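Quick one:
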Amino acid sequence: MSRVDDYRLILGNKEIIPIMQGGMGVDISTSELALKMAELGGIGHISDAMAPYVSDKKFGTRLQNSKQKEFRQFADSLDKSAVKWDFARTYEGTLNHVRHTMEAKRGSGLVFVNLMEKLTMGNPAETLRARLMAAMDGGIDGITLSAGLHTGTLKLIEDQPRFRDVKIGIIVSSARALGVFLRSSARLNRYPDYVVVEGPLAGGHLGFGIDCLHQFNLRTLVEEVLALLKEENLSIPVIAAGGVFTGGDAVDFLRLGASAVQVATRFTISQECGFPSDVKQIYLLSKEEDVEVNLSSPTGYPMRMLKCSPSLSSNIKPNCEALGYILDKNGKCQYHQAWDAAGVDADGKKLPVTEKMCICYHFMRYNCYTCGHNVYRLKDTTVRMADGNYILPTAEHIFNDYRYSTGQQISLPSIAASEDEALRNGTNGTGPGAALNTIPRKSTTPAAV
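Output:
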């Protein structure tokens, strides 16, 4: 029976084990996670979402603080048209994150950065160029363009010395979307080095209308993209993503003609993942009915998450002076209107905002439990201990399970091996404190403003 290890992804002159770990922001797909993937011979992603915040947290910079001071006069106004991230702060934050990651890289694999077009930062073209330039200057192996059609993205960096050296790919949810990008890239004679086809079972932001998710499936989407590339006489590796839960699932797509698979949900409970350990235990306790796709993201994209996410029914006051990562060029964000329209209780306190969430604040606080459809199956990939907590497997264990398993077989981690790895890595492999016997539900108490 075939295994993923029987196949290889060819990118330029590199031969890669065809397992790509998806980019999860904000620092959920940590440098440590991506570096482990590269060490093992696969591809790891970091995310550049809110990179200035990540830089402040990890490297002691004051990028958000300095921005907040510059625009503090707008704190009590919903007119944020003057509040913008500039090139310098954006560049520095991304450069710090990427450079420190790449300096630590070991092994034969690659490290890519996931870069969202929808991260507009009040200044879309300038900050998008800053993020791209910083990623390349920082030595990144590849850039995966996501959350948008990116028809003008390549034009922003055609003068960068690494423009034709760094690997550039794009995430699409249809052959039609890929066709749009191919037409724009053809004008620069710079076709993508790979294409990630993301299906409707993926986690986080989705490229499908919320009412038509059931009309699509990943297999058909991959077949349509492969057919388009053949029609265009283009030999570009296709990577299947969204719902690839086992090594057997991965082999099915490799047999279909995909060159690799991208996986993320399985890695959300890895020791190297940036989620706090108690959140990982919540993922492990989830059931299928705990998962929903909603429109709470102010990006306008549907988003799959756990219903118990604290980001839902919160009422955080917009703090775009420090944050403001989703502001459009006119200083607008869908959360502003929802927050402004929310009423107050008898004590004059703002009521919960149910339509939208402040995505900057809640991603920064790990309050938005984004997940793939198969999150409820995570409990079947590990072992529950006597205290009620589940063992958190290492990224290496998950990678090797994909690589070597056959069919729907899943290799479970051992307690001893996980504890030894946690000690070596300085991570907490079992989660904190008391057992979590039930998944918490959304609180009805409004969060503090």
